[in-house]
Write a structure and sequence with these properties.
The chain has about 450 residues and is an all-beta fold. The protein has a domain of about 240 residues. The protein is about 0% helix and about 40% strand. It has two helices and 35 strands. The strands form nine sheets. Strands 4, 30, 31, 32, 33 and 34 form a six-stranded antiparallel beta sheet that branches. It has a five-stranded antiparallel beta sheet with strand order 3-7-6-5-35, with no helix packed on it. Bound molecules: fe (ii) ion. The site of fe (ii) ion has 7 residues, from strand 22.
């Protein structure tokens, strides 16, 4: 056994891949710390918790970045001060030493997102079921909604700011049912569950909502059962499968979907989508291809694109808006599914050792594709989440927060950026007592 620079203990006989080294490497200690060190000042109006999920293999080893056990960090901001807590999601796999990855819904690593709806908090990963947490990060357990969630559940449900509904789905890699739509009302009850027909098993990481529609993305990262049985990487880039967008009324079903062919490409994360008359606009972080070299190959880099679906002519206009490489897009949550001017994205990493997190954050004008740049200095960033100043105000009246890691000092920080002075100095850098490994997604949860 040996201890790596990242502080992880591992088996000497294995060469550590990028996703287990540097700040991708896991931490083990669950900590609580108050009165965190702050450079600058935390705006007193900010009152709530920023929770973020990520991959943190308890054994020190995972076969893929996406397989590490889920650990949630929660930074609590109140009266200009900050505290932090981090906890594993307590799954059966964690209890068994980590990494258990059967297809059983309960065997989730629960590592990709943490979402609050109707006062309940869920740790989510797309190949398994939902794990409920409390606001102190205690794990409550698997939640199936009385058996209503019949298989996997996405890590990217959408919260409608107008109706309070949560719209979601689960995809299966093996048929016959490849996709299922779920709709929850504002009180948190599961009110609709619809099977959706797809011709093949594809990876559907995220989807889109507008005021009246959901838009499915049937894109050709395909599952190959024969390869999986033979022990090869089960997903891969298969452009011959085609690429399609499916427009469905939010309260509709499979028979109501209109499918539109588009050029082959892949989208992990849309920025936002909305309706403009008889058109539906989707702004997305799009890759020309993804997983070309198989499931382990996530070296592809997304750029900003706009797809405009014309429901009258039945065509899709595809526009490349910018050639900077970025992903992890967010908008003001008050405008999810509604027309937005601004989207925030994280620059992707440039090196084999750090493919995911770069040192710039972008505030895009989604109309023009122009961006204001926040330079993080020596800090590699993370998903930029918008924190509103209040309930009304301008679209960008608030702050952008992210958890980043300083590669020079090996310290992590919550960076708070004024969204209306985006390229200026950060409002605050809140330093954490131990480093926070690069993670995936999270959300701002205002108090109350
Ligand atoms: Fe994601």
């Amino acid at each position: 056994m040996t201890t790596t620079e990242a502080g992880t203990t591992t088996d000497e006989s294995r060469e550590l891949p990028w996703h287990l080294t540097g700040n991708y490497g896991p931490i083990k200690e669950e900590l609580d710390a108050d009165n965190l060190e702050v450079e600058g000042s935390i705006p007193a109006e900010i009152d709530g918790q920023y929770m973020r999920n990520g991959f943190n293999p308890i054994s020190g080893w995972s076969d893929h970045w996406f397989f590490g056990d889920g650990m949630i960090h929660a930074v609590d901001l109140r009266d200009g001060t900050a505290s932090i807590r981090n906890r594993y999601v307590q799954t059966p796999g964690l209890a068994a030493g980590g990494g258990a990855m059967s297809m059983d819904p309960k065997d989730s690593p629960a590592n990709t997102n943490v979402v609050r709806h109707a006062g309940r908090i869920f740790a989510l990963e797309e190949a398994h079921g939902m794990y409920e947490m409390d606001q102190d990060l205690n794990t409550i357990g698997l939640e199936t909604f009385d058996g209503g969630i019949v298989g996997p559940f996405t890590a990217h449900p959408k919260l409608c700011p107008t109706t309070g509904e949560m719209l979601a789905f689960g995809y299966n890699v093996v048929g016959p049912e490849y996709l299922r739509y779920y709709r929850f009302d504002a009180a948190g009850a599961l009110v609709q569950s619809e099977p959706i027909t797809l011709p093949a098993g594809v990876m559907i990481h995220d989807f889109n909502i507008t005021q009246n529609h959901v838009v499915w993305m049937d894109l050709p990262v395909c599952f190959d059962l024969e390869k999986a049985i033979g022990g090869e990487a089960p997903f891969g880039w298969t452009p011959d499968n085609g690429s399609r967008l499916g427009v469905m009324p939010r309260n509709g079903g499979d028979a109501d979907i209109r499918w539109f062919d588009i050029e082959p490409g892949y989208v992990l994360h849309p920025v936002n989508s909305w309706e403009e008359g008889d058109k539906i606009v989707l702004v997305v972080c799009r890759l020309d291809s993804f997983m070309d070299g198989g499931f382990d190959d996530i070296s592809g880099k997304a750029e900003l694109w706009r797809w405009t679906i014309d429901l009258t002519t039945g065509t899709v206009k595809e526009e490349h808006l910018d050639d900077r490489k970025s992903d992890f897009p967010r908008v003001n949550d008050r405008l999810v599914g509604l027309k937005t001017r601004f989207g925030y994205t994280q620059q992707l990493g440039h090196t084999p050792e750090n493919p995911s997190m770069g040192q710039e954050v972008y505030k895009y004008d989604l109309e023009t594709g122009e961006a204001e740049v926040h330079n993080l200095g020596n800090v590699n960033g993370g998903e930029p989440v918008f924190v509103p100043r209040g309930e009304g105000g301008a679209e960008d009246d608030g702050w952008v927060v992210l958890l980043g890691h300083d590669v020079e000092t090996d310290r992590s920080e919550l960076r708070i950026i004024d969204a209306q002075d985006f390229s200026g100095a950060p409002v605050a850098r809140v330093f954490t007592p131990q480093r926070v490994p690069y993670g995936s997604h999270g959300n701002w949860m205002p108090r109350g």
